[in-house]
Amino acid sequence: MTFEDHVSAVDHAGKRDEARALDALFRKVSGQVPAMWGKIAGYGTYHYRYDSGREGDSFRAGFATTKAKHSLHLMGLYCDAEAGEASKALLAKLGKHSTGASCVYINKLADVDMGVLEELVQLNWNAMNRAYPPA
After folding, report:
1. Which residues, 6 or more positions from 110, have their beta carbon under 8 angstroms from its beta carbon?
2. pLDDT tens-place string over residues 52-105
3. H-run or E-run covering 117
4. How would you classify residue 49: left for phi > 0, otherwise alpha for psi between -120 and 50, otherwise beta?
5. Nearest to 74 by CA among 62, 58, 88
6. How far apart are CA 86 and CA 65, in angstroms?
7. Residue 117 Cα distances to 43, 68, 89, 124, angstroms
8. Per-residue pLDDT averaged across 108-124, rounded?
9. Quick one: pLDDT at residue 109?
């Protein structure tokens, strides 16, 4: 499935437009085009290895869009203490959202400050690059 296939399948015209706006933001910050990881548009990749020996590949940042909300996957904010602290101030200024695990959930982009959102995505991108330097 391509990113455009995913967006076209979203059952809400406004959410489709917002997904394209998020794509533009993530492309601007990352310099990457999205690859689909299931229903998540992922930007960039990294390889991880746990102490247990388990390893794999994942995306550095991404988002998923449904009719109800956007789920922004920003793992760098949670795996980097410096970014985690800095994200608290940004999240306080972001606008209406919720969080869970390594995600920020937004119902509609009009509810948030897009400049702050870009700062948050950039903070995540930088944290992932520190934690997992690009090859």
Report:
1. none
2. 999 999 999 999 998 899 999 999 988 888 898 999 999 999 999 999 988 999
3. helix 114-131
4. beta
5. 62
6. 25
7. 16, 19, 12, 11
8. 97
9. 98
Q: How far apart are CA 131 and CA 31, in angstroms?
A: 18
Structure token pair of residue 81: 């203490």
**How far separated are the first and last CA of the chain, in Å rounded?**
26
CA distances from residue 98 to 33, 72, 112, 130, 133 in whole angstroms, order as listed: 26, 11, 11, 26, 29
pLDDT per residue over 15-38, tens digit each? Answer: 999 999 999 999 999 999 999 999
Tell me whether strands 70-73 and 98-100 are parallel, antiparallel or unpaired: unpaired
pLDDT score of 52: 96
Residue type, 65: T
- Whether the model clears a pTM of 0.85, i.e. scores above it, the answer is yes
Strand order in the sheet with 103-106: 35-37, 40-49, 55-65, 70-73, 103-106, 98-100
CA 37 to centroid of chain Cα atoms: 12
Please tell me what DSSP assigns to residue 35. Answer: E
